[in-house]
Amino acid sequence: MFLPYGRQSIDESDIEAVAQVLRGDWLTTGPAVEKFERELGSVAGQSNPAVTVTSGTAALHVAYAAAGIGPGDEVVTTPLTFLATATCAAIQGATVVFADVSDDTGNLDPAAAAAAVTDRTRVISGVDYAGHPIDAPALRRVADDAGALLLEDAAHSIGGSLDGTPVGSLADITTFSFFPTKNLTTAEGGAVVSADTELLQRARTFKGIGMVRDPERLRSTDEGAWWYEMPELGLNYRLPDVLCALGSNQLTRLGRFKARRAEITARYSAGLADLDGVRLPAQRPGADPVWHFYPLRVLDGRRREVFDALRAAEIGVQVNYIPVHWQPWFADRGYRRGMCPVAEEYYEQEISLPMFPDLRDSDVDRVIEQVRTALGG
């Protein structure tokens, strides 16, 4: 039987939560949205409600737009990430500057980020690779010295923390993703959180097509109750009630999801610890990850061999990620292989083993057995 790399964890209470919305008066921009946004803000350690959007990619686009990123600006980020961390900055007209990663966690290396900063740097974007929080204190110093915002792409890590501070309160602005394989799901969806009320207001306006109705923000105040204005451009990235209801119900089980992911990670590590030719994921002191996937590193150039063997054994492993600067769009603009050697070596070794809360211990043991068989251990 094929074992997937990741999958959603849906139960009857999730189905009922969605059904209640379908039976009600609101399908979009109603009370379920407001409820989910308040809950997300609380999980992120913020007094401000979150701004929900239609995907993790939309969250990044909204965050860059809210930060005022545009032509002439530079965004420093990691190449070891999904495309959107970089491309959403490029869509806004910014120049993307890739900096290398730390060898142990795969997260943006503060020293490399500092070396990449120029007087045009407006945002430094770190990614919580595999769910391990970024080195926020060090990256904060780099951002502050540059007069830039620190953005945390926390698509992998809602519910995690660093030194007791929740993910969502470590950076100036944080983005989440609620894709089915993530730590909780709204089917498709994402969110932006920040302690900066003005930044969040700009995010909320942008995701709502740039429209405003608040009398204090209108230029014409003598029109009727139907009046709205568009002071800035925006897009329709609104997450509907029906999906926010699913998100709220999922949040009630986030702690269980996190605990089970930790158990699976520990079981993988125990089963592979004595195996030659692999490197297990690191966890730095003070970091409390929500493990989104298990990034096993296969050494000595054997990653493809092991990947193919596991797929042949019907185990749905994945690779996270192809370095973004290798993509044709970036290559056509002068980005070259070799510019981030640590990230490139990490990619050449990495295999993501199956990880989701409903994974059984017997499934984990099956994966461990097949990895050991593939490596002759």
From TrEMBL:
Gene3D superfamilies: Aspartate Aminotransferase, domain 1, Type I PLP-dependent aspartate aminotransferase-like (Major domain). SUPFAM superfamilies: PLP-dependent transferases. Keywords: Pyridoxal phosphate. The active site is at K182 (proton acceptor). InterPro entries: DegT/StrS_aminotransferase (IPR000653), PyrdxlP-dep_Trfase (IPR015424), PyrdxlP-dep_Trfase_major (IPR015421), PyrdxlP-dep_Trfase_small (IPR015422). One of its GO terms (molecular function) is pyridoxal phosphate binding. The lineage of its organism: Bacteria, Bacillati, Actinomycetota, Actinomycetes, Micrococcales. Pfam families: DegT_DnrJ_EryC1. This is dTDP-4-amino-4,6-dideoxygalactose transaminase. The modification N6-(pyridoxal phosphate)lysine is found at K182. One of its GO terms (biological process) is polysaccharide biosynthetic process. It comes from Barrientosiimonas humi. Belongs to the DegT/DnrJ/EryC1 family. Its cofactor is pyridoxal 5'-phosphate.
